[in-house]
Amino acid sequence: GDSSISGLPSLEEPVPIYSTNDTNDALVRAYTKCPAYDNILLNWYNSSQFKNMSTQSATLRSTIQNSYLLGYDTSLQNWWNIFDAFNTFMTYGVGDPVPILPTVIYNQVQSLANWLETAKMNSSLTGNRLGGFLLSDLMYYMNSAITANANDNIYTRLLTISGHYNTQLSLLSALKWDQVSGNTHTWLTTIPKTAAALYFELHNVSSVLYVRVVTQNGPGADFVAVPLACNSAAAIAVLGNGTCLFTDFITLVGEDASRF
User: Fold this and answer.
1) Which of 97, 146, 169, 198 is the most buried (most CB within 10 A)?
2) Tell me, what's the pLDDT at 71?
3) Using an 8 Å Cβ cutoff, are 22 and 29 in contact?
4) Once rounded to an integer, what is the mean pLDDT over residues 62-68?
């Protein structure tokens, strides 16, 4: 932004907006336009893991199709759309009217959607195909801040990306967070709530750089550290759980750290 615009407080800038046609976007909704990932999902739909869940959920899906949503596609592949139809109408009163589900059945519908959507974002399926561009964008701004600080320049920036839960989960999958031993973070098995936030913090403590990653599962929720492979006892001692030395974070990010 141009900080010389009259009327703005000192050191403050207009908020730059990233905007592009959805077909050209690779930052926020990469998960909708990656043919390689689409092919991986098609293969996964034929896996024993997926077929087993399809068998286990057959009674529930049949109940929904025969008693609540006649004629709808209630296949496991399409289950997110089934849950979304119930959730948007029952929770927010918007969308096409659907029958009101008993709480027990609604919870089962939601649980199956949670399984499907989080399983699709497993790092073994996504790699860095979906979150890699956003991760490299993050690294660009972190490196810009570090360079400015080294030159004694003021660099105040809060970079905010607004997207769907898939954006958050694909970014974490690019960091292989689901491969960290002992990770019990709720987003591994449940979809992030509406207005959930994922924060990447860059800290300079006594001339040592750290990155801390935390989540907030909706407004007012507690902040929860994200376990990453680069977490170390020394870094955690400085800023708490979810902290990596910046150099270790770069190693974890790998090729995405130098894409820009």
Assistant:
1) 169
2) 86
3) yes
4) 96
Model pLDDT, residue 6: 45
User: How far apart are alpha carbons 252 and 242 in whole angstroms?
Assistant: 14
Judge whether residue 88 has pLDDT over 50. yes
| 145, 135 contact by CB (below 8 A) | no
Mean pLDDT across the chain, nearest whole number? 89
Query: C-alpha distances in angstroms, 195 versus 83, 210, 217, 221?
Result: 18, 26, 8, 11
Q: What is the CA radius of gyration of the chain?
A: 21
Tell me how long the chain is. Answer: 260
3-state secondary structure at position 97? coil
pLDDT at 160: 81
Query: Can you name the residues that pair with 198 across neighbouring β-strands?
Result: 215
Residue 133 to residue 260: CA distance in whole angstroms: 9
Alpha-carbon gap, residue 242 to 226, rounded angstroms: 5
The pLDDT of residue 2: 38
Rounded CA gap, 225 and 242, in Å? 5
Query: For 76-85, what is each residue's pLDDT tens digit?
Result: 999 999 999 9
CA distance 72 to 78: 10
Q: 168, 139, 163, 165: which is closest to 260 by C-alpha?
A: 139
- pLDDT surpassing 90 at residue 165: yes
CA distance linking residue 98 with residue 182, whole number of Å: 40
How many CA atoms lie less than 13 Å away from 16 in the CB half-sphere? Answer: 8
